[in-house]
Amino acid sequence: MANLLFHGSIRKKIIVLVLLATLPAFMLNLGTALLHRHQAIKSAKHQTLESLHEFSEIQRRISDSTRTLLQTVAEIPEIRELNPHAAQITLETILKANPIYTNAILINLEGNVVAAGTGNATNLNFADRKQFKDAISTKKFAAGEYVVGKTSQKSIFPFAMPVLNANGNPKGALIIGINLNHYRDFFKRSNFPENSFFGLCDHNGNRLFRYPKKENIEVGTPIQEAVFLSAKTGKNPGMIVTESTDKIVRIIFYEPLRLSSDTEPYMYLFLGIDESEIQQGADLILTRGAETGFISIILTLAIAWFVGGRGIVRHLESLTETVQKIGSKDFKNPSGIDYSDGEIGQLGQAFDNMVNLLRKREKERNNALASVRESNERSRTLLLNTPSGICLVNPVSQFIEFMNPAFMDIFNVHDENLKNLQLKAFHPQKDSTKVDKIFEKHILHEISFSPALPAMTLNGREICVDVSSAIVTINGRNLLALFFTDITAHKHSENELIGAKEVAERANRVKDEFLANISHEIRTPLNGVMGTLQLMQETPLDSEQESYVEIALGSSNNLLKVLNDLLDFSKIEAGKLDIIEEPFELESLIEESVNLFQFQARENNISFHSHIDPSTQKFYIGDIGRIRQILFNLIGNSIKFTESGSIAVQVYSLPHRDPNKERLFFSVEDTGVGISDDKIGYIFESFTQVDGALSRKHQGTGLGLPIVKRLVNLMGGNITVETEVGVGTTILFCVLVTKTDYIDIQDKKDHQRKKSDTPLRILLVEDEMVNRIMAQKLLEKAGHSIICAQNGEECLEKLRKHSFDVILMDVQMPVMDGFETTNIIRNSKEFSKIAEIPIVALTAHASNKDLNKAKLTGMDEFVSKPFNKEVLLEVLQKMHDLNK
C-alpha cells in the first residue's frame, strides 16, 4: 500500500512540474493567435472599405461626367434661347447616347418645362425641386434629393445646371435624372458575402437605393437614424457596428460624396457586411492556436502519466495513434480507451471530445477558407474586369508597382514593358510640366480628381483621360492608387459638337444678314410704290382709276404680307419672335377681324358671321397683334377656299389652373373645298400647299398655317383641324391670356382720345428720291410743313439753321447714316439745346434687332417701310404730344 502511494505521489509531482513547464509556451501560442485574429479582422475591414471606395468612384465619375455634359449643352445657343424644338432634338440625343439617364429636361426661370428628352413633360413645373432652386441661386451645377420622376414615376436622383444669358444671369436650367439601378449589377459581380448589402441615401437621409432589396424596406423612406448620424458627423470615410432592421449585426462602412470640397455632401454610400462573416475567419485562427496549445498540454500530460506509471503505456500508445490520425486530419476513430478506467478513462474521454471539437473546427475552417478564396476571387475579378485603368505608384520614386489589364490596354503596355515604368512615361512632352504639377497634387492629397488630362500611350498616341486618386496603405506602405478613364472619343465628339455649333451659328448669321438685306431691298422700292398709290388716292380719280389704284394697293399689300411672313417665320425658327402682352377688348378684336373680310365675303356671296360666347370676359391681356395675325390668316384662307356657303368665327373661354388666366378657344368654320385625308398631315409644314401643281387655282407661299401653328404654340396654346372634302373645314385653336378689368382698356382709350392733330414742323431725312418725295407729299397733304435732307450731314446742317418739332430719320444713308446722326444729336454739346427732340426711325430694316439698335442709339419710335399713311401720322402726333 505504501509502495502504491509512493508511486502515485511521484506521478502527480511529475504531472504538476510538466504542466508548469508547458504553461508559458501555451500562453505565448495563445497570444500569437489573438494577434493574428486582430490582423485578420483589420484586413477584412480594409478590403471592404476599398470596395466601398470603388463604388464611390463610380458615382463620382457619373456626377463629374454629368456636370461636363450639362455644362457643354447649356452653352448651345438654342438651349440658352430656350428654343423648344432645337432643345428637344438635343435632349433626345443625350438620352439615346446615355442609357443611365432617365430624362433630360430644359426648364425656364419659372420652373415650367420648355422641352424634354422623352417628350412627355411639357405641362410640368419643377420650381419646387431642390436641384432647380440651388442651380438658379448659386449659378452652379447642383445636386437634388430623393424624388419620384414626374414623367417616369420611378425613383431617381437628379442633377441640375443653370442656363445663363450673355450677362451671366440665370435664364433657366437643365435637369437630368440618374437611374441608380446600375449599382445592382455591379454589386452582383462583386460577389460579396451572404447578408451583405450596398445602399445610397440623399443629404436628408432618405434611401435612394438598396440591394439586395428587402420587403420591409422601401426606397424614399429614412435609413436608420444612428447610421445616418454616424455618416453625417463621423470620420470620412468611416464605419459603424449596428443591428439592422433584419436583426443581423453588421459592420456598415460609409462614405459621403460632395460636388466640391467646400460643399455639403449630396449623397452617402453604405456597404454593410455581416459581422459574423468577418469574425468567423478570425475566430478560426484563434481556435486553431488554442487547439494546438491544448494538444501540446495533453501530450505532455500523457508523457508525464507514462513516467508516473508504466502501466498506462498501452493507453498512451492508443492516444499517440489518435494524435497521428489528427495530424493526418482523420477525425473518424476515437481513442479506444474505456472511459470507466479511472484517470486514464477520463483522459481518453477528454481526448475523444477534443477530436470531435477538432472535427467541427476543421469543417468551420474549410468553410472560412472557401469564403476567403471567394472574396479574393471577387476582388481579383473586379480588378481585372473594371473598365477603369488602375495602377499603384510609389509616391516617392513614381515607379509603377502594379497595373491592371484596363490600364495596360489604355496606355498600350505589353508584358515586356512592365519593369521600371515611371508615371511620367505617360506624360506628353508638350504638356509635361503642366501634367507633372497636377500629379504632384495627387500625391500630396488623400483624394484628388483631374478631368480631361492630356496623356500619351507607349506607342506615342495622344489621348485624353479623367484621373482620380487616393492614398492607400498596403503592407504598411503608403502607395498612390490612380484610376484612369479614357475619354478621348468623348472629347472628340465634344469638339465635333462645338465645331458643328460654330458652323450652325455662322450659317444662322448669314441667313439673318440675307433676310435683313433682302427685306431692305424689297421694302425700299415697295415703299415708293405704296406711297405713290396712297398719294393718288388723295387726287381726283374716276371710278375706273380708283379700282386700278385699289388693285395695285391690294397687290402691294399682298407682297408685303409675303415678306412679313418670311421674316416672321425666320424669327420663329430662330426663337427670336417676341410675344408682347397688352390689354385688349375681345369684341373689338373680332369685329376688326370680321369687318376686314366682309367686302370679300359679300363679293363671293358668302354668309359671314361671328359669335362670342357669354362665358367670355370683355377684356384680356395678351398679344393682340399676334392673335389678330392668326385670325387674318385663318379667315383669309377660308375666303380663298370657299366659293359659296358660309364662314363662322366663334370664341369661347376655357378655365385654367391659374385663376388669373383663361384659355380663349377660337374656331373658324367654312363650307369650302375641304382637305383630303392624304394631305391633312402637310398643311402645317413650311412652304407646302395642298395643291402643289403649277396650275393650282389658289396661290400662296405656304407659310400662313405654319406661322399660325408656331404663334399659337408661343402663346401657350394648340391648334387642330377638322375637315372633309366637299363639306368644309373647321380650324380650332386656343391661346393663353390674362384676365383684366374695364379700367385698363378705358384708360388707354381716354389717352388716345386726348391726342390732337397739331400741324408739325418735320425734318425729313431720306436719301432715296422717290421715297423722299412721296413722304413729303403725304405729310404736306396732312397739314405738316416739311424740310428735307438727303443724309446725316445735311440733317445736322438743317438743325443749325431751323427749329423742328420732330425728325423723321432714315437709317441707311450715304455720307452719314441715321444711327451716327442720332448719336451726335443726343450727345454733342453743339446740339445740347435740342438733344431731346423726338426722332422717329423710318427704315426698310424691320427686324427686332434693328428696332433695339434704334432705341439704344436714342431714337424714340420706329416705323418700317413700306408704311401706312395713318400709322405714320399717328406716330408723329404721338411724339409731339409726349414732348409737350
Offer a quick outline of the entry.
It is built from 22 helices and 28 strands. It is α+β, with helices and mostly antiparallel strands and 884 residues long.
What does this structure look like?
The chain is an alpha+beta fold. It folds into 6 domains: 40-61 and 182-277, Beta-Lactamase (2-Layer Sandwich); 63-178, PAS domain (Beta-Lactamase); 312-368; 386-486, PAS domain (Beta-Lactamase, 2-Layer Sandwich), CATH 3.30.450.20; 496-541 and 755-884, Rossmann fold (3-Layer(aba) Sandwich), CATH 3.40.50.2300; 578-741, Histidine kinase-like ATPase, C-terminal domain (Heat Shock Protein 90, 2-Layer Sandwich), CATH 3.30.565.10. The protein has 22 helices and 28 strands. The strands form 5 sheets. Strands 17, 18, 19, 20, 21, 22 and 23 form a 7-stranded mixed β-sheet that branches. Strands 1, 2, 3, 4, 5 and 6 form a 6-stranded antiparallel β-sheet that branches. Strand 9 (238-243) and strand 10 form a beta hairpin. Helix 12 (488-537) crosses helix 18. The longest helix has 73 residues, at 2-74. The radius of gyration is 44 Å and the shape is elongated.
Instruction: Report the CATH superfamily of the largest domain.
Output: Response regulator
The shape is elongated
Summarize the amount of helix as a percent range. Answer: 40-55%
Q: Measured on Cα atoms, how large is the radius of gyration?
A: 44 Å
Find the CATH topology of the largest domain: Rossmann fold
Report, as a whole number of angstroms, the end-to-end distance. 148 Å
Number of spatially distinct domains = 6
The largest sheet is:
7 strands, mixed
- Summing up helix and strand content along with how strands pair, one would put the structural category as alpha+beta
Give the name of the CATH architecture of the largest domain: 3-Layer(aba) Sandwich
Amount of beta strand: 15-25%
Q: Which parts are unreliable, with pLDDT below 50 for 5 consecutive residues or more?
A: 1-10, 307-311, 686-703, 744-756
Subcellular location: Cell membrane
Transmembrane segments: 14-35
Organism: Desulfovibrio gilichinskyi
Main location: membrane
